[in-house]
Each structure stands twice: as structure tokens, then as C-alpha cells.
Amino acid sequence: MNSLIIIGGGLAGSEAAYQAGIRGVNVILYEMRPHKFTPVHKSRYLSELVCSNSLRSNSLESAPGLLKKELSIAGSLIMEAAYKTMVPAGSALAVDRDAFSKHITSKLESMPNINIVRDEIKTIPETLSIIATGPLTSESLAQQLMKVLGTENLYFYDAIAPIIDGDSIDYDMTFFSSRYDKGEADYLNCPMDKDEFDRFFDALVKADIVTAKEFEDKKIFEGCMPIEVMAERGRDTMRFGPLKPVGLKSPKTGKLFYAVVQLRAENVSRTCFNMVGFQTRLKQPEQIKVFRMIPGLSKSKFLRYGSIHRNTFINSPVHLTKDLTLINSDNTMLAGQITGVEGYIESTAMGLLAGIFASNKLKGKIIKHPSITTAHGALLNYITNKDHKNFQPSNINFGLFPELEQHLKDKHLKKEAIVKKALEDWEAFINETTY
After folding, report:
1. Which of 292, 310, 328 is the last residue of a domain?
2. DSSP structure string for 259-323
């Protein structure tokens, strides 16, 4: 049996390597870091999280929560690392990003049938391979992929939020609380009255952004919208988004606030905080000037500035089969964000499926696909459905699932039925794809 080549040690590549590895497949995992870095990666560790440290909702009443449950049932390495390194974040699953990536790296390095090679791959291998290079695929490999596809890659621009040094925050002007006091007080809240919000808003919409020519026609992913783009859509848009004050009262007076900026801890010791919903393309001096107008952040130190970068993905409905294989290249599979899924767990899910599919290919087994009633199956169907006229990246959401046979008006009952059916069908799929 030949070795499986995996290019890219991000979430999808690491998960694919692990799934193939535990199925007895010999894996060669290529990762170009630390010899060559992308514009946003900083460490040598696999599965480095470059945007938020949150994997979003953990509730089974949400599509992301369901997808994470399916991943856990399948023995996902990424989920194992997430739960071992989680930090308080209310109903969301957030992780200590350094401990998270170190756990994954250590686990893969300890597996005898996985060989991690630190080198850039510039050409597509002729033997069975999974390209999981993510949205920041190197220029040389991207050019090779374009030749195979016979078309240009698609792209959009993604933004990341700043990280604040915890020691630079004024805790007298902020307070820890969860919305509606549900669960632990995991978020640090920076409250604003109307005058403070108005001054902040006026400064934000006037602030300089990174020059437009770097972003061409500025295709911005709606699910990760820069805060200044949100502000351009109206004075109250942020107040119905990341700055919504509902469910948060003053611990001193019990009064409601006009707007609230929330900070989420990056680690258990709370030495640094992510500005929730503050993805931005503001120039760095402007970030200092504008974001220091937020109560409690007047002397804030930025451990990481917000930034925006180009994400590459292919027109998967045109180029991919349901096995995640390129239609015109039987030995080339794709996984992760380059397939047109958006988000950490979505990328992980495609990596998991690619690892399973590739293992079955190498063993000569029939490849079975998860039902569309599952979160994995719904995502797979979305990126390979030939009916798409204007394909764009998507997170997992219940809108991707088929209608239930039984019509239910109650939203909670409907979600419960979707989740129940999904987990039943997913467990059946996993049982059919045992090692």
C-alpha cells in the first residue's frame, strides 16, 4: 500500500493525517513552516489558529454544536485537543491557542506511521495526495492547482481581530459577566453610554483603512465582516451585532447599557483578550487611536493587531466529486477551506472526511458518503452540489439540511428532530467506516 501524501498542516491536514494514521495508512505530512511562513502564521506548530480562538457554539441546538458532536463521535484529533485546552467562553468552545496547536503537533509526531516533513511542496504529486493548504496556499502551489483546474481560483478577503494585553486593561471600568447571567462570567465587558458610543462610531467611520488596491474588488466574507464595514451599514448595525447590550446589566446599578464591547480570554490565566467581533482592516495607528476610545481600553497594549488577508478557494461544485477528488485528477483530493467551507470546525470536518475517503481508496474499499441529514453530509453536499450558480464559502448552518419528513412548527422541536436524525445517521456512517 502506497503512502498518502498530505500537503498542509493546518486543521484539515492534521485531521486528515490523524484519521488516515489510525486506520493504518502510512502518511507523509508536508508543512512548509517554519522554513516559510504565510502572512499571518507565527509559529512552527501544526493547526495554528490565526483568527479567533473560538470554535463557536457548543450547544446541540446550533449547527456548529452538532458538527462538533459529530467530529467527537468520529474520534477527531482536533476536538480532542480543543476539549483538553479549552478556556472559559460561556456556551462557546474556545481554546488556549498555543496549547491547542502544541497538543496536535505532539500527537501526530508520536504516531509511527506519520512522517512530518518541514518543506514547501511546489508541485502536485502524481500519487494519491490531499491538498489541505487552506486559504493561504503558497503562490507556487496555487499556480499549479490553477493549471490542473484550467481556471483561476476564486477568493475573498477575511479579517482577524486584535488581541489585547490583559495587564493594560482598566478593570475598574469593565466587568466580567455572561449575557443574562447564564453560566460562568466568562466575558470581560466594556460598557458604553450613548455619548461614548457616538464618539467611537464617528471616529471609526472616519479612520483610515489599508489601501483598497491591495484588496482589488474587496470581496468580504459576510461571516467575518470587518467592524468598520459593519459601521458603514448604519449607526445601529454594530448595536445589533457584536456591541449588542441585551442581557448585560451594570453590576453596580442594574441599569442597561447603550452598547457593550466584549472581550474573550485567549487563555485560562486571562493574560490576553480577543476583541469579539472586531475583525478589522484599519491601519495599525488607527486601531490604537480608535479602539482606545472604548471604555477600559484607553491604555491598551496590542499583542496582535487586526488585519485582513486574501483567502483562496476553488469552485468546488464544478471541480470536486463527493469523494473530495478533483474531477480531472483522480489522485488529487482537497480538504479544508480551499474547498469552499468557512470556519475552523468546517475545515476540520472536510479533513476528517478526506482522511477516511483516502484510506478507503488506498485499501481498495468502496467509498461511502455521510447522509445529507448529517452536518458533515450537508456540508459535503453544499460544496459539491452542481446546481450552484454563484458558489460562495459557507459555514455550517441548519439551512444546508434537507427538510424533515415530519413538518414541525415549533423551532426547538424542529432542531431537536434534525439533531436526533443527524446523530443517528452519523453514527451509522462511522460504524460503516471503521478501521
Report:
1. 310
2. EEEEEEESSTT--EEEETT----B-HHHHHHHHTTSTT-TT--EEE--EEEEEEE--HHHHB-TT
